[in-house]
Amino acid sequence: MATETKTGLDQQTIDIIKATVPVLEEHGTEITKVFYQRMFEGHPELKNIFNQTNQRKGDQSKALAGAVYAAAYNIDKLETILPTVKQISQKHKSLNIQPEHYPIVGKYLLLAMKEVLGDAADDAVIGAWERAYGVIASVFIETEKSMYKEMTDTVGGWTGFRNFKVIKKVKESDVITSFYFEPADNNPFPSYQAGQYITVKAEIEGEPHVHLRQYSLSCAPDEGYYRISVKREDAINHQPAGIVSNYLHETLDVGSILPITAPSGDFVLNQTDDRPLVLMSGGVGLTPMMSMLETVVKQQPEREVYFIHAAQSGNVHAMRDAVKEITDNSSHVSSFVIYDRPTNEDKLMNNHDKEGYIDEEWLTSVLPSYDANFYFCGPAPFMRAMYQLLKGRQVEDCNINYEFFGPASSITG
Fold first, then answer.
1. Measuring CA to CA, which residue among 189, 192, 200 is closest to residue 229?
2. 286/253 same-domain check
3. pTM score > 0.85 for this model?
């Protein structure tokens, strides 16, 4: 007689799920690729939710494979993956994922497993996974239900998309432009935590489906508006131009209307910690760092802050003057600029503190110690380098905070 566990799954089911972990490690990405292909064939309307650029790059398949693997490995102790569940649920909330989406995902995930694994996915394996998926899905549904309720209970809060109006458009560099938003209905709208993001809905003429993109809010909360700062992604090295970023740069102007979601995300500034705060960014990754910087100087004015930004050159360096003004007006803020390829003007004007990259020797020379709270954001190679640098200095995971919308293994692996 099978015994039940606190997940509601019998031991035989758990044993089967755990036994499939090595198979998932080997075939997980292939399974999820087939899953997305089959699901979009059966439900093309879901292309309006999932980022098709990430689909082409394979990022979404890798992320889903990692989540499935983690759930399988911890099926008898799902509480250990609750932080991951909450992180993914924040993304789901920003995309307005609903309970009715989960049975669709489950159906095509099981079909993909059967297609890829063949005879290895017999009736016992598929049956076990069907039961396990039901448990895992219920954890996500309940978590997201709580998040949606919290937002609707907030003054000015909403679920789904709400129209906001562009009230200001500012060119920050050759490639980055800031957009300032207020609600089109002029009704109240909620605050947020420094580091969170919103999802924008771009309905672009000639495009077969809606495009959803996440952009970090780039200013401190409670300024009377939301602000995002968007890098225009140009076509380069056989990579096509960014559909949404170019749409925003070229089409959105003062008075334009854009549907957005309420703020989401768990990459947020810890204001209960009074140790030194180190904010490191690469390229457009400075957007959540700016929100954190503007927030900490207002709410923790005595806290030591080290703001370190890496860019290719001064031409693409956004918000330099804003950071300089904050640094000049606060004795507790130190800021540093690193250019990979400084221009002759950068060199002549001493626009940067270091040429090249952020390395351990230099970082050690500007920080008083590594007993600090670190936040960083930027392109994947930058993120990987910062993570490895900090781990090499024995900085604990609880003090390493980063924002990355792809699979974490590409940063920490």
1. 200
2. no
3. yes
Residue range 111-165, pLDDT digits in tens: 999 999 999 899 999 999 999 989 889 989 999 999 999 999 999 999 999 999 9
Q: Residue 287 annotated as binding? A: yes
Residue 249 pLDDT greater than 90, yes or no: yes
Residues 218 and 351 in one domain: no
Q: Which residues have C-beta within 8 Å of that of residue 133, sequence separation ≥ 6?
A: 106, 109, 110
Q: Could you give the CA distance from residue 348 to residue 334 in angstroms, rounded to a whole number? A: 22
Query: 108 among the known binding-site residues?
Result: no
Quick check: 9 and 132 in contact, CB under 8 A?
yes
Q: Measured between alpha carbons, how far is 108 from 55 in angstroms, rounded to an integer?
A: 16
**What residue has token string 């207020």?**
182
pLDDT digits (tens, 9 = 90+) for 273-287: 999 999 999 999 999
The reply to whether 50 falls in a domain is yes
pLDDT score of 407 more than 60: no
In a domain, 303, yes or no: yes
Residue 400: strand, helix, or coil: strand
CA distances from 35 to 40, 75, 109, 301 (A): 9, 21, 5, 50
pLDDT at residue 223 above 70? yes
Residue 188, annotated as binding a ligand: no
Domain shared by 167 and 255, yes or no: yes
Q: Which residue range forms the structural domain that includes residue 315?
A: 277-412
Does any domain span residue 267? no
21 and 145, same domain (yes or no): yes
Residues 144, 256: one domain?
no
Give domain status of residue 128, yes or no.
yes
Q: Looking at the annotation, which residues are catalytic?
A: 102, 144
